[in-house]
Known about the structure:
mainly alpha
Amino acid sequence: MTDTPVAGNLPGTGAARPGLASSLSRTAQDLLLSDYFVLYLSLAYFIVLIPFLPTLSNPANISNILSNMWPLLVVATGQTFVLTVGGIDLSQGSVIGLTSVIAGALLATSASGSVLANAPIWGIIISEDGGLLAGHPGAIWIGIGAMLATAAIIGAINGISVAVLNMPPFMVTLVGLIVFGALAIWLTQSENIRPLPESFIQLGKGDIVSVYLGEQDEPRIPRRQIYSFVTYPMLIAVGIAIAASILLSRTVFGRYVYAIGANRRAAEISGVPVRRVIVAVFVISALCAAAGSILYSARLEGGRPTLGEGAFLLDVIGAVVIGGTSLFGGRGRILWTVFGVLFFVLLSNTLNLMNLSSFHIDMVKGAVILGAAMLNVLRERLIRERSR
Length: 388
């Protein structure tokens, strides 16, 4: 009786290659798999760069980092649901632009004919006297409702196309990005709509609690020494993130999302209402994009058809992936997305402080997202090896 050679120990093949788990120390494994890994990375990145960028730790810059974080967090929260279910939503940018135009067309307090005279909505929805709801006592809430309703319709179209027609989510949402983005530009002929009412602007810029760090005996406090601490965008973003976290981690719907992302076929056999859940996920993503549009439009004080264009989608998906949500579906948490958004905003801030061009900034961001994707694969391998 002869012994059968073991694979990996055949003559000339060398010893079997050790698994990933055995090649990393236990501490490194725990760190990689920690829910707070990206938070630790952000703190380390911040501390390391302070000696080279002293302005990084200035109160004004920290306030700026936080103000940039809240709108992105809202949009990234919706993207987290889609990635967790095993899809992707590229149409969020166009939803932001289109709903921003809707806000401007309905809420503008006045408008310039010389700017918007060629726009199809001129004289129908908006005129020199302002938008359709200008002066109406409930204009803000009606306008926000119209933005959310438009987003929900777009999300439902995306979800039905993916869940019912079995179309690839990448292709469906890419078409949505092109079509609805073009519609937003056509409606205004690429012009911005402003001014918006002050009560709407407060949603994106309003302070609830501010901090003054100057001399206490100054008779007149300079505005540049007053820093926002608690703002309306912060409350809106944190509220949406908490609600989304509860929905994803503590409800039956959330368990369905994880099950579909892990194995759609097995979820169907188990009785999960796959189609309804997928449609709901894309509606949630679009609604979060509209909520982000409210914050961005209010902050910039105008309806902007190009608001979600450019590298914006790179920021959203990059933040979610950096946070640790799996590109393969089945794994994702809102807490991870919060940390990913923090790191991505901090990265963008430091690159701007280095006075790099927009081209170099996008190159660095792309490299960081690629690194995050590779890290995602590494974590998946480590989880599989640990579960054996």
